[in-house]
Design goal:
single chain, 11 strands, globular
Length: 224
């Protein structure tokens, strides 16, 4: 869906509802922006729409709703929050993707992933191992961060598949850049003449976002 947006900040994979979510840093970022800057949430904004939120997480959701009365807020669906609807959404726009002229295509990236849907048994075992480690006293990081550390080769296969399929999509849609989330793998690279940006997640450092202006597409990673 193409829309007339000149200035925007684009983030992905907040996973509101998880203790690893950097909620204060996210709110500080949004509050630092002028109201002429749109907020684009590129998928997996909620970790689980069917799970009740703690009070601190509900405050973040209320904050996003309140921001929709001050600036354009676009909530793109990811695999965790596909089709979700929140109570009293304010003026939040819910959609699958966002196209900014021929400059940038914004899409979560789960549609480019054919690996995880075919290997649910492996994912379940990774989660079991991670949960057991936490019970034994290990740090309760996001399961994606754990998988990156323990299975780097397999994780790289996933990130390359998402990137390659995203680049094909950008070429087919005649845009010069595409940004995704989904893999929690931060990247800003050039592939087949297409700029591919993955903004990672807000459950681990670095915390990344795109600052889109009329002049440029700036990728920012903080807390490295």
């Amino acid at each position: 869906m193409e829309q007339k947006i000149t200035n925007a900040v684009i983030v992905s994979d907040l996973h509101i509802g998880l203790p690893q979510f950097y909620r204060l840093e996210f709110q500080d970022l949004v509050q630092s922006l002028g109201t002429d800057t749109a907020l684009v949430l590129n998928g997996d904004t909620l970790d689980d729409p069917n799970r009740p939120l703690a009070a601190t997480d509900q405050e973040v959701l209320d904050f996003i709703r309140d921001q929709s009365h001050k600036r354009t807020v676009i909530w793109l669906y990811g695999n965790h929050d596909e089709g979700c609807r929140i109570e009293d959404p304010g003026r939040i726009r819910f959609q699958r993707l966002l196209r900014v002229q021929d400059r940038l295509l914004v899409v979560h990236g789960d549609d480019f992933d054919q690996i995880m849907p075919r290997n649910q048994w492996f994912l379940r075992n990774v989660k079991r191992i991670h949960n057991l480690r936490v019970k034994l006293g290990a740090s309760p990081v996001h399961v994606a961060e754990f998988a990156k550390r323990r299975f780097p080769f397999l994780y790289r296969i996933l990130t390359e598949e998402v990137k390659n399929n995203a680049v094909k999509c950008a070429i087919e849609n005649n845009v010069s850049a595409i940004t995704c989330g989904h893999t929690h793998y931060v990247e800003d690279s050039l592939c087949e003449g297409i700029r591919y940006i993955n903004t990672g997640s807000w459950t681990e450092i670095p915390l990344c976002y795109i600052l889109l202006t009329q002049e440029k597409i700036e990728f920012i990673a903080s807390g490295r």
